[in-house]
Write a structure and sequence with these properties.
Low-confidence stretches: none
Shape: globular
Structural class: alpha/beta
Mean pLDDT: 89
Helix content: 10-25%
Radius of gyration: 17 Å
Number of strands: 13
Order of helices and strands: EEEHEHEEEHEEHEEEHE
Number of helices: 5
């Protein structure tokens, strides 16, 4: 999976490509990840873990899709989210400092599990530490009307991210913590297991 993080004097932001990029992305000559670690040693672990279905069952299933929830202003997102024409998420921006990014890579927090949930085999890609993803306080939100791709999300108050809405609307911000997929043609295992991480120094 391709994940980028930009280090700048103004803001720390990354982008997670949940699906393989549709076009060739130019190589960033200002990538500095190799200054912090041996890129050739980076791996995305894969493990079959049937008991994760129980973890998912303990989470709240939201009654709406992610895109409809956003359009109906049931929540806000941290930054931009990109969808395809069917409502599947192709990628999203995320607030992430270089230290956070490096820690997630070094701890192998980016990892893939295979499990059984809702009577189907699914693959779960973690985008944060295990306990942060599988917290019982998190929620599961389907991507569209179909039941083959979901997000694990954490709702946080805007103030925790330094965000203020005017006027105050009591909106929560949805942070994407994991991908649940039974749609390998859109979220192929070969792509999810291929680490393509970039730490980019903003010029």
């Amino acid at each position: 999976m391709k994940i980028t993080c930009i280090e700048s004097d103004y803001a720390h932001i990354g982008y997670v490509y949940l699906q393989p990029p549709s076009g060739k992305i130019p190589y960033q000559t200002n990538c500095i990840l190799n200054q912090s670690m041996d890129i050739s040693q980076i791996q995305i672990p894969f493990e079959q873990k049937p008991e994760l279905g129980t973890y998912l069952e303990n989470m709240t299933m939201l009654p709406y899709s992610f895109r409809s929830g956003y359009k109906q202003e049931k929540f806000e997102t941290e930054y931009g989210v990109d969808f395809d024409s069917s409502g599947y998420i192709t990628g999203f921006e995320v607030g992430m400092s270089p230290v956070q990014f490096l820690t997630l890579i070094e701890n192998q927090s980016y990892r893939l599990f295979e499990s059984v949930w809702q009577n189907q085999t699914c693959h779960i890609f973690l985008l944060d530490e295990f306990d942060s993803v599988f917290s019982e306080f998190n929620a599961i939100c389907r991507m569209n009307r179909k039941e083959d791709a979901y997000l694990i999300i954490q709702f946080v108050q805007p103030e925790t991210l330094g965000v203020t809405f005017y006027p105050s609307e009591g909106k929560r911000i949805a942070l994407i913590k994991g991908l649940i997929s039974a749609k390998p043609e859109l979220y192929p295992l070969s792509y999810l297991l291929q680490p393509d991480f970039e730490l980019i120094k903003d010029k």
